[in-house]
Amino acid sequence: MEPGVAERPDPGAPSVADDPRPLFGAYGIVKRFGAFTANDHVDLEIRGGEIHALLGENGAGKSTLMKILYGLLEPTEGVVTHRGEVVRLANPEAARRLGIGMVFQHFSLCENLTVAENIALVMERGLSRAGLARRIAALAETYGLHLDPDRPVWSLSAGERQRIEIVRCLLQDPKLVILDEPTSVLTPGEADRLFAVLERLRDEGRALLYISHRLDEVRRLCARATILRAGKVVGACDPRRESAASLAAMMVGAEIREVASRPETAGGAERLRVDALSLPAPGLHATALRDIAFGVRGGEILGIAGIAGNGQAELFAALSGEVSAGRPEAVRIDGRPAGHLGINARRRLGAAFVPEERNGHAAAPGLSLSENVVLSRHATAPLTRLGFLRRGAAQALAARVSETFDVRKAGPDPAAGTLSGGNLQKFVVGREILAGPGLLVVDQPTWGVDAAAAARIRQALVDLAAGGSAVVVISQDLDELFEIAHSVAVLHAGRLSAPVARARTSRGAVGLLMGGAGDDAAPPGADRETADKAAREPTHAP
Predict the structure, then answer these.
(1) Is the Thylakoid keyword given for this protein (predicted)?
(2) DSSP secondary structure of 284-309
(3) I need a surface site. Which of 24, 127, 436, 517 has the fewest CB within 10 A?
(4) First CA to last CA distance, the chain
(5) The domain at 49-66+99-252 falls in which architecture?
(6) So where are the chain's domains?
(7) 89-105 confidence digits (pLDDT tens)
(8) In what order do the strands lie in the sheet with 51-55?
(9) What class, spelled out in words, does domain 258-350+437-542 have in CATH?
(10) CA distance linking residue 141 with residue 101, whole number of Å
(11) Same fold flag, 49-66+99-252 and 258-350+437-542
């Protein structure tokens, strides 16, 4: 057996899950950042052989507690224990020595290195390339986590990158695995395969701490949940005995208001027209766009569904102006040819854009929130004679976004990178919506946000369209699209199906198109089980 790869447990051996002591505990944890208290006397016990959910709205203190358990932060007060003994986790290396591993929401991979080179960065020195390859192969055999060690990371899908993070963690044979929003960038099929791995780890007696805003996943996987609100533990429950709605209510302290969808504005003028848009794949494992054509009128929300890796990023880049569409007439904004224009020029035509990746793409993490407002508004906002957005105006805009979208932050104008992922998402979406664009294109608008924040963002998109704007929502979340979109199209292998009114289609029919079936693949009476399976399964091996 290769070192670092756990053997299957002996059925006759004592189980760690039978140990009455918690595998790891956190007691009286307080963490202050100046006058701000992120964790306020938090208690948490994690036992072997269980998947334990840590739930809370954005800014509830989950990320801070995780960083304390992984040695990235030291608590202001309180202790961490391992099998009842107090331990000091001064850094991640100390945490790993105790058997704590972590799979981060935002990948910490070097794009230009291969899979094997990225894994080698966290392994012990002196391990040969052949030895590492054997360990990776053993994990693949045990858990089904197949990887090509020689592939460069930049060429991999999000699901394959997630797999690297998990393999790096498991090669250190952890007793506790902390997972932060592990399915946020996975297709439904990839998520199902991840769940099988997590259940296998649980059955081996390991402990898993699972952080997710996808409450149906929590109800499927977890036997216990601890709920944080405003840095404090406010409850615990068995998620299997709760509904997604009741879990969400416990997290936010109130019932989640449903999105009040509004009818499409009748007779709105066409604000976006895409015609015969074809672009070559920008990289070896990217997707070419093939003859994309659609229009969106003022007052309309067009939802674009699809499994990750089918051209969503390439389409967003072509619509936003990050990549030239070639012919000016390939993209028209309010009737004006814009296919050859860059982002700033398209913003001056009244368009706004929210990319999928908030950290580094939608926002510069090292800059303040007001400076991030300047980055997106400098081409259109009132300028001083020196050509810069007034500092006071930028700060006022950032404060307005934060208040309107309930962005939780430490200080009036902190760096974007200090916000939790969900709060940064709220800020980025709010920054673009409050600009009052005539056209908004948004990719994965509620990625990594809690139920209340998702409802707030979706309502803001609905309200923007009701005011006469055209909205394009690219999303892998079919529930989201069927909640807010007036019509839905499916992007598959770089081709876009004809948009269909939401009332005239179904999740099953859309699922068939996501799986690669033709536009007529789901006639009335089509088998629902087949359609639902297509909606869950990826179109290619991740």
Answers:
(1) no
(2) TTS--EEEEEEEEETT-EEEEE--TT
(3) 436
(4) 27
(5) 3-Layer(aba) Sandwich (3.40)
(6) 49-66+99-252, 258-350+437-542, 364-431
(7) 999 999 999 999 998 87
(8) 100-103, 176-180, 207-211, 51-55, 224-229, 232-237
(9) alpha beta
(10) 21
(11) yes
